[in-house]
Amino acid sequence: MVPRRLKDHRWSQEPPQLLLAMPIMMIVIVTVVDILAPPSVHLGPFLVAAPAVTASFAGPRTTACVGAIAVAAQAVVAVVRTTLTDLNHSSQLIILILMSAFATSFAARRERHEKEVSQLRSVATAAQELVLKPLPQRVGSLRIASVYLAAESEAQIGGDLYAAARTAHGTRIVIGDVRGKGLEAVGDAALLLGAFRGAAHRQADLPALMAFLEGTVSSDLDDPAALDAATEDLGEAFITAAALDIPDDEPVLRLINCGHPPPLLLRGGHVSPLEVRDPAPPLGLTDFVETELSEEQFAFEHGDIVLLYTDGVIEARNREGAFYPLTERVDGKADTSPDALLAHLCGDLMRHVGGHLGDDAAMVAIERMPRHS
Questions:
Q1: Lower CB density within 10 Å: C or N end of the chain?
Q2: Which one has a higher pLDDT value, 329 or 358?
Q3: Mutual orientation of helices 17-36 and 60-81 as an angle, nearest 10°?
Q4: What is the C-alpha separation between 8 and 101, in angstroms, rounded?
């Protein structure tokens, strides 16, 4: 499994020395110029910029120290040019002390907020790692690679999910995307994954498995305590999902798509989407849309690779607002492996978005290998 890329928050980390040197140099320059300037020129008010700038990147202690240095510098200017009791300089000192205290208070509030955000991110990430277990690299006659790319924004921890399970006759794989963000989305993903892992080897066929998952999701949504406090409409809560059943002894795969982006089949360097004729609605919406869960069969031969992905991949935008052209980037990738394919796509996707994803993205690549390999 390609390791996920998470933003590392270190709210206790000291600011770089280069940044800290900026307000100190500002104080030195303003002080020297103010002392050498004509009596009619007063640069003391510019000293307030030093603690204000420091508060934007440093903690309250560092900000208070810079503020104290600025106050001391203002006092030196007052002594050199006139006296500390001079009305102009004493007024500047009082204002500088008040503004330094305000900047220190701001730095303390910012640091507390960053600490809270970091803790929330850590909790959500830990929950996500417990829920989203790594996929095995080899399952039966399948070679599998998976990747989870986390969004940069703390608010964008999502409910992207995937899992694989062995049955008596083959392998079943699911990928999905929970509507919403944060811990609630992670909880919904955990619900679906737990249901899949428990039922994948017990249900006779794929329609029965997906019907069971639909029942699990719908039952959870029917519980008022499980609803998001901000969500009044049940129709706003759902999970898109695609499930594959890949038998060991047949060169085929069976697919049910519940409102999820279609998988891509890579064969001989050419890519084609696995579009189903009768897609089902997302899980949790069958109360609103009546449909019959039916699987469709596609050829899946030795050397073929099927790529599953979430909408965080195809909806990733570059600076010009263009979506990531996944199909184009996969097309032409002949003689590749699942690991190599995902490594290529991850690097290409991050270059497309300039290194910053706006939403979580997950991909799973599955290759059918000869039984003896």
A1: C
A2: 329
A3: 10
A4: 30
Cβ(135)–Cβ(1) below 8 Å: yes
E strand or H helix at 365, and its extent? Answer: strand 361-368
Protein fold of 134-368:
Phosphatase 2c; domain 1 (3.60.40)
Q: Order of strands across the sheet with 296-299?
A: 158-166, 170-181, 239-247, 252-258, 296-299
CA 364 – CA 310 distance, rounded (Å): 9
Domain map of the chain by residue range? 17-122, 134-368
- Structure token digits, residue 238: 């759902």
- List, for residues 255-313, the tens digit of each pLDDT value: 999 999 999 999 988 999 999 998 899 998 866 666 778 899 999 999 999 999 999 99
- Determine if residue 87 is left, alpha or beta; phi over 0 gives left, psi from -120 to 50 gives alpha, anything else beta: alpha
Considering Cα of 373, then 164, then 257, then 203, what sign does the dihedral take? positive
Confidence label for 229 from pLDDT (cuts 50, 70 and 90)? very low
Q: How far apart are CA 352 and CA 326, in angstroms?
A: 11
Q: Using the 8-state DSSP alphabet, how is residue 234 labeled?
A: G
Residue pair 214/196 in contact by the 8 Å Cβ criterion: no
- Rounded CA-CA distance 241/281 in Å is 9
Give the Cα separation of 210 and 246 in Å (integer): 15
Question: Using alpha carbons only, how large is the chain's radius of gyration in Å?
Answer: 29
